[in-house]
Each structure stands twice: as structure tokens, then as C-alpha cells.
Amino acid sequence: MTLVAGVDSSTQACKVVVRDADSGRLVRHGAAEHPSGTEIDPEHWWNSMQLAFERAGGLDDVAAVSVGGQQHGMVCLDKDGRVIRPALLWNDTRSADAADALVRELGDGDRVLGARRWVEAVGTVPVAALTVAKLRWLADHEPGNAARIAAVALPHDWLTWRLRGAGSLDDLVTDRSDASGTGYFDAVSGTYRRDLLALALRRHEEDVRSLVLPRVHGPCEQAGMGGSRLGLSRTMIGPGCGDNAGAALGLGLDVGRVFLSLGTSGVVAAVSEHRSADPTGSVAGFADATGKFLPLACTLNATRVLDAMAAVLGVNHDEFDALALSAAPGAGGMVHVPYLQGERTPNLPHATGVLDGMTLSSMTRENFARASVEGLLCLMADALEAVREQNVSIEQITLVGGGARSAAVREIAPSVLGVSVHVPQPGEYVADGAARQAAWILSGGHRPPTWPVSDIGTYTAQRNSGVLARYRRVAAEVAGS
């Protein structure tokens, strides 16, 4: 049996799966937590990955490994390969004003024109999450650190580099899916837009030509062998991928299939033959991990909305689900707009959450729980609609992530989203996608190996349009305030 490993270095933890390369059967797994926060020393990711490898039984018998990672995180390296400052993660919103400035500057002061030009260039309008916005923030607020930059990498790029022994900066590699989330990579032509990188760093284009950007590998192109000092000299290293592309690969999604992932972030994404071009900025024109594209809408708020309400109510997750399911649809008129960390879709980085419709009769524990579930699902319904507007047909979604473990989410989702909801067995689909990529590299085939995905079932319900209508009314008030 030939073994492969896949890594998911996410916002909250590092997860590792070891699978049989031919069948996809899970052999063993391990995990380790990451520190909380939106600004992290990357060394924590490396330490967690080593611990997760150890808990997964090591890599001594593993033929290939690939790393999937949280997208957009800004890892700046100096000429000696040292990290210049803690990485700013995707959910750090301090770069919101920088993103807006970049849009206006590319449009010569006209935001609408700027948004269209960004979409034409890279498929995505800058928001706070994107690396390009974080680089502008760095140039404006920490010019000394910005001046020291010799290379810019993403979390999965940096971890892959470390696995290969952290040699020359020229050894940095990435893939189309993660590079497409930087804001300065054109996934159609397969080239970096150094003019946009220069704009972000407030430099002339000639001044950024010497900056090292990770070489972009094809979907099944080997990135090299592991570092000898790590005992991985016989282990093949894959190019890795962004977390959402990894999830799509782990689920075996192909063109026309849509997934909704509820984790730290909420994501709606569909595999497509063509890059999307949404000048509103709601849908990002990202690439997937197979050579196709992944139009994607992402929210800042997802499962932590439910975690926060469960903590307020003083219950565990099972008790929270029971409370939510015992309340009537509509939560007695209570509406929760869950912008607890600001929001990315819609682009309201400085917004806060709202709980509307509180009356003596509606203020029950059951309605509080139901309103938080419905609010989260309404937020995702709007993200789903944004993807649909990119000529994506959505008749069914595949629900994954920590939120898919919630009975309340599974049962309420079809009535709010208006489509049937297919739920596979809980799994680490980002890590699985990275492992499937590793197996693909070993096989040398034109397509990744076919691995089965077990199902829990498919949930259906009649659409309750009143819940979404009330939510949209309150959300519009928040956006206008």
C-alpha cells in the first residue's frame, strides 16, 4: 500500500490525514491547534504542523505530501528568508481602507471604473482579506518593514518551502488556486501582475521586479522532494493549494457542482470552466486545484456565530441544536444579522451584528438559538445568490465544514437557501484534497484518482421566503447606517 498525506493548515488548527493513494482509505490522522488572533507568527504554523505529523504517526512511510492552507495571509520575508513581521490573516480587517484606495486608484478616482479594471486584470475586486490590500496597509503603516521585503508568500507557500528545507527564496512555489487569491495574479494567463504589486507597495514597477514571488506550479506538478534534515528526502512534495480549492478537490467536485463550507469563514464556491467577472466584488474569480476556476463568495462570519450564541445561552452544541429546532420558523419575529467580525460579503468590514425584533414574547432561549441559525443561513443565502448571478446553476449544494455537523443547520438550511442540501460524512476535506493531489502527483495521470465520499444524506424542505425577506430588510438597514 502506497501512502500519501494531506495537510490543512487552517485559521484555527493544522489537520493531517494519511490515506492509501489508490483507494483513498483513511489510514491515520492527527491535529494540533493554532493560536487565536488575526496576526500570527508563521512559526506557530510550522510547530503545529510538526505536532500534527507526529500525532498522525509521522511521514516515514509516506510517499508524497501536499499542503492546503488558509488563503490570502501575508507572509513577508527578508533577503535571508526570515519572516519580517507576524502574518496578517485573511480575517484581519485593518486593510479595509487600503483595499478601497486600491480600487479607486486603478480607476483614476472612479470606484466603479476601478472595480471593473481589477476584475479585468485578476478576476477579483480587492477587499480587506486579499494579500494585495494587506501589502498596501503595510506600505502605509510600516514602511520600514515594507522596504525590507525580498519575497512575499502565502501560508501554504511558506509551509511547503519549509518542508522542502527552506533553502533559497527562489525555491518558493505555489499553485494557481492560492495565487489567484493574492489580487496580483492573473489565473487566465498564469502570470503575476507586478504592476498591481507595485501599486500596492507604492513603488515603481521596475522596483518590484526583483521581489521573489512563488513559482506557480501546475495542478499535478511535483514541487520537489522533502528536506533531508527533516528526514523527508524520499518524500515527494506537491504544490499544495488554497483551502477552498482543496475542499472542492477533496469532495471530488467537477464543473457545475457547488459547495457551501461553514467553518471560521462561510464559503460558497462552484467549479467552472471560466473565470467569473463580478465588478461588484461579491464573487471572487479564483482558480481551482485542477486547472479550472472556482467562482467564490466568502463571509467573515460562520460557525463562530453559533459558538457565540451557544456560549451566551450556556449550552453545548447538541443542546443548542435542540433549542433551535424546538422554535418555530422565523424565531417569533426575531432576526439576527451576524456581522460579528464586520463582514466581507457584503463588504462591510466595520459593521457589527444586530438582533432585531425582540419582544416579551419572542425573547426565549429557543428563539435566540433559532435566530442565530437562520441569520447565518440568510447570510449564506445572499452569498449563494451572488454566485448564481455569475451564470452558475444551483439546484443542490454540498454542505461541509464544522457547521455541517449541526443538526439545526442541516435541517433548517433547505428552507432558507431554497435548494436541497447534500451532506457528506464529516471529514477534513481540505486535507483530503491535498492528499488527493499528492496521490495525483504520484500517479502521473491526467486527472486525480477517484476516491469515494460517504454520505449522511440529502435534506429538503419547502422554502420559507419570509425568513429571508425579514433578514434582508434588517441587513439593508445595517448597511445603510
| Count of DSSP-assigned helices | 15
**Helical fraction:** 25-40%
Rg calc: 22 Å
Summing up helix and strand content along with how strands pair, one would put the structural category as alpha/beta
Our measurement of the CA-to-CA distance between the termini, rounded to an integer number of angstroms, reads 60 Å
According to DSSP, the number of beta strands is 24
Largest sheet: number of strands, sense, barrel closure: 7 strands, mixed
Q: Which outline best applies?
A: globular
What's the quaternary structure here?
Answer: single chain
Low-confidence stretches: none
Global mean pLDDT? 96
Q: How much of the polypeptide forms β-strand, as a percent range?
A: 15-25%
Sequence-ordered SSE layout with sheet pairings:
Blueprint: E1 3-9, E2 13-20, E3 26-33, E4 39-40, H1 43-55, E5 62-69, E6 75-77, E7 87-88, H2 96-106, H3 111-122, H4 131-141, H5 143-147, E8 151-153, H6 155-163, E9 173-175, H7 176-179, E10 185-186, E11 191-192, H8 194-201, E12 215-217, E13 224-225, E14 236-237, E15 241-242, H9 243-251, E16 258-262, E17 266-270, E18 284-287, E19 293-299, H10 303-313, H11 317-326, E20 335-337, E21 354-356, H12 365-388, E22 396-400, H13 407-417, E23 420-424, H14 429-443, E24 455-459, H15 465-480
Parallel strand pairs: 1-5, 5-14, 5-15, 9-12, 16-22, 22-23
Antiparallel strand pairs: 1-2, 2-3, 4-7, 6-8, 10-11, 13-14, 16-17, 17-19, 18-19, 20-21, 23-24
